[in-house]
């Protein structure tokens, strides 16, 4: 098929590669503008812009929503279908209907209608879900609310991080997209409406979301650490700056929240149980073991982590 591909984040890269490898023609790639990144602040292309360049796909980088110019470019390129994966912009009606089939499909990293929104993987881990997956659905006016073409389940391991789980889902989603486009091409696609009563929402993550509240149970804090790794990162606000918590594990413990407990690592009491801080990064310093941080701060059992 002749496809207009919408994508910006690296999550979309396996999908773009898979569609091209399956013989589909990417007649237009729509991605976000180059943005300053790194210490130099120099504008850098999105991962999808770089990959589309390798594939020889024409490019369109609107400053915001692709609006009427986007619709015109899609129609002029002769796109039959629009495919959206981690693009990051709302598609208006004219853009959604610009392909000759009259619609676009979207790959979403959850089992819709659970965890609609910008951060479904983090939401699933933080909530303690045992399973997640991917869903391919028709793009509608409301975010992630369109009818479903297909879905695939993926278990969530007890030590899964957002980054690792996202990587697995991106590869799974790429395979499913190829299958979905084949069904559309063959005229065999069936779209099923979502159950609105089961819908939950996963809002955009911010850096402040990673703050760890030690009055909460250790199991919950462990999920927060994993849900926000590698970004935006979990942290403890201390007197000498934020202490980023990169790896942690819940363990037994019983003391007032914030109390340093004995053990081989830096073990901190929480609202229920305790949290072993295995790997941390103090403000302005390199990553280190929790025990090394405890030694450097001369933290003694019975004292408070401040």
Fold topology:
Layout lengths: L1 E6 L5 H9 L3 E6 L4 E2 L6 E2 L2 H9 L3 E2 L6 H10 L4 E5 L7 H4 L7 E5 L7 E2 L2 H8 L3 E8 L9 E8 L6 H24 L15 E2 L15 H10 L6 E5 L2 E11 L8 E2 L4 E4 L4 E9 L5 E2 H8 L9
Parallel strand pairs: 1-2, 1-6, 2-5, 6-7, 8-11
Antiparallel strand pairs: 3-4, 7-9, 9-10, 12-13, 13-16, 14-15, 15-16, 16-17
Helix pairs in contact: 1-2, 1-6, 5-7
Report on the structure:
This protein has 306 residues and is of the alpha/beta class. It has two domains: 2-202, Rossmann fold, CATH 3.40.50.170; 207-297, Roll (Methionyl-tRNA Fmet Formyltransferase, Chain A, domain 2), CATH 3.10.25. 27% of the residues lie in helices and 26% in strands. It is built from eight helices and 17 strands. The protein has helices at residues 13-21, 47-55, 67-76, 93-96, 120-127, 162-185, 218-227, 290-297; strands spanning 2-7, 25-30, 35-36, 43-44, 59-60, 81-85, 104-108, 116-117, 131-138, 148-155, 201-202, 234-238, 241-251, 260-261, 266-269, 274-282, 288-289. The strands form four sheets. The protein has a seven-stranded mixed β-sheet, sandwiched between helices. A hairpin with a 6-residue loop joins strand 3 (35-36) and strand 4 (43-44). The longest helix has 24 residues, at 162-185. The radius of gyration is 22 Å and the shape is elongated.
